[in-house]
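Escalation from tier 1.

The customer reports that the assembly of two entities below gives different structure tokens on two consecutive runs. Tier 1 could not reproduce it. I'm attaching the input and our single run for tier 2 to review.
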Amino acid sequence: MSNKKWIFWALCLLVFVSLAVTALLFRDRTPAARGNIGVITLTGAIAETGGDALQAVDGITPYKVRKLLQQAEDNGQIAAVVLRLNSPGGSVGASQEIAALIRDFPRPVVVSMADTATSGGLYISVFADRVVAQAGTITGSIGVITSHIYLGELFERLGITAEIVTAGEHKGLFAEPLTPERRELLQDLLDDLHTQFIGSVAEGRKLAPEKVREMATGEVFTGARAQALGLVDRLGGLPEAVEEAAQLAGVADPQPVDITLPVPPWWEALGRFPASVLDRLTFALLGKDALFLQQQLDNHLVPKW
Amino acid sequence: MQPETDENLSQKELGFAETVIGIITSPAATVREVSRGNALRLAVPAFFLALLVTNTTAVLTEPELAQLLGGPGAALVVLTAFSFLYLLSQSGLCYSLARLFGCRGSFATLLSLLALANVPSVFSAPLALFRFVPGAGGFLHGLGTFLLAVWVIALGVLAVRETFQLPTGRAVIIFFLPLFLVLLLVVVLVLAAALT
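Tier 1 run:
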């Protein structure tokens, strides 16, 4: 064999060995493999579907929380999870689903409230094993809110005639002006959801329902006041929450590690591109009114915590 | 080892191993020899082999990149396809520019030589190991990667020079002009996006 062929095979061997060693050394470099307290950051409004493209906020969805908790559960080294939460609340069903995921998680869960954990943000916290908040965190707001938007006059101004045909006495609730009777129906609905909220806080925080009902006026509290009311266990930030998680899981040397969703493949971003362009065009053409109207329509008759 | 001469290399047709090692150890003579005939049958497999090594290294050492591209397998396919498209575009643009300047040469030869110019990038695999060396490992990896890039560019200039029998200065211009044009296009597109 000529010299060049020897060199060629030597080069092949060098490359192969290098790749094998690189593969072995990088195998254990995934961040999730190196910590024992998983930290999941949840930011934004709670909703069933993803965030608002115009606001560029990702939001908190049951899908996302399920995926993140599953990732933590699949990692045998994660002994407990800290949820770093910053949320003004959101839709009722999604909040209930997320709360159930936290309640049923097989390892300890500690919520670390950031700036805000109000309403639905508080709701999803109450089933955690511990709640840690800063003294200045804004929490509370145990109440339900919704809005009814009647677009009939706008249609009239635009020269559009909207004929609404319904079957069922109150089906037109979504598209017609509120009558006193229908307002009462809506109020009953909100009262029912309010009672559910109070019941869950009482159950999750092991408080007397009467005590929770007293604080469930929709008012907000500081973290310090929330601790006095029994909604928060300890004052502090993320390090204190990690300490709590380690204590609950019996971990002597806590090593927090971020748990994040994998970056979506490029074709998913490409798939969202047309919708994103359309959103931006709408925003550019109609200005802030479009954003406001979109938010109002999103909230139309959707009860929120 | 015999000294690098055209006569030594032309004594027999170059094989795959000789071409790959020749590009690394005696680039000028190998490029000259390859430019005399149709070397696509050697150059294309050598190019894809080099890509396989480079892209596998990238996928192993940059898991975020692999995730972004849809997983390790998909990343390998995407990176390989992109690199091949880049080679075709680079060859096409260089060839068009050279013809525009009145130079004569074969597109197949240019494509073969530019493909072979990527062969030294197989060293990215052993270079990646420097990342595990404590202390100066990162610096050595960066330096090695930079030198590797210079090496590949120098071979690209050599490829243009030998294909069109040009002085080195003009070969440099023809090699870099497409890159400059692509960069200019990117800048214009970014500016247009920022202004709208």
